[in-house]
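Escalated from tier 1: adenosine-5'-diphosphate holo job.
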Amino acid sequence: MRSNRSTFSSIDRSRHQEGDLPVATVTGLALDVIFPMLHGPYGEDGTMQGLLELANIPYVGCGVLASAVGMDKGMMKVAFAARGLPVCPYRVVLRHDWAREPDRIADELEKALQFPMFVKPANLGSSVGISKAKDAAGLREAMVLAGSFDRKIVIEAAVPNAREIECAVLGNDEPDASVPGEIIPSREFYDYEAKYLDEGSKALIPADLPKKIADQVRKLSIEAFKAIDGAGMSRVDFLLERGTSKLYVNEVNTIPGFTTISMFAKLWSASGVEYPVLLDRLIALALQRHADKQSLRTSIT
Ligand SMILES: Nc1ncnc2c1ncn2[C@@H]1O[C@H](COP(=O)(O)OP(=O)(O)O)[C@@H](O)[C@H]1O
Ligand SMILES: [Mg+2]
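Tier 2 regenerated the structure:
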């Protein structure tokens, strides 16, 4: 199936360096749908999605707004809290302000959140630049590290003895949630080493949870997806406090890992949606969302 509907050649390339953007690579091709398998800034944060909107090409997954909100840990928490979802206590600090008043800010953070705290660059992922600060000296180091990756830093109270629960969401305006899974990190928390370098982290699918909590995870996953105005797919990650069973929505990943062994695909497989069917569903959802948008009026006459 090919269409002449849209080509990248309609984009003004003179503004870009050759090789800067994938525009040059695909120029002239008529594309039916794009499946962005990209992570982090310029892939998952709405910029690529904006390019595809301009080119009027259907694409899999979240649109510009949901991608940008899902990338920004500060704005994501605002969206979750506005929908009444449980988020852990947090603060957002600009690197600019930290550089001017570190003592005052450190004091405020300690009063508001107490140690240990998680300190994160607002827009990144893969645990890059994230530290667990256990004391005042650790907090200073963590703020400098996070501030080297982003102008905006998110500081959170650590959820004690957190279990890491993940749930996959699929759909557009009527999304479904998969069975929940659990990650057992090989290290103190699910940092970069535990995610990509150590072999020791494990995934349990489905997570060993009482039905009541599993149902709550699925319900909150759909709510979190709706809170960012998601489309197509997302993986919603939770922190579950051992002992109290208090559940916090940690984040939405709008382009989750997508190999056959990634959590997203495995969660759907455990929920009865095998990988080939999952891919077909995602492509169909992309085409449906695009068609839906094409049907909108763009003028009042
Ligand atoms: N508030 C918190 N309490 C306990 N653990 C946390 C908290 N925030 C983050 N973590 C740990 O750090 C990891 C990475 O943080 P996360 O916010 O998921 O960033 P990323 O987008 O890089 O995955 C989490 O998987 C978890 O292990
Ligand atoms: Mg994460």
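The pocket of magnesium ion (ligand 2) is lined by residues 237, 251 (CB under 6 Å).
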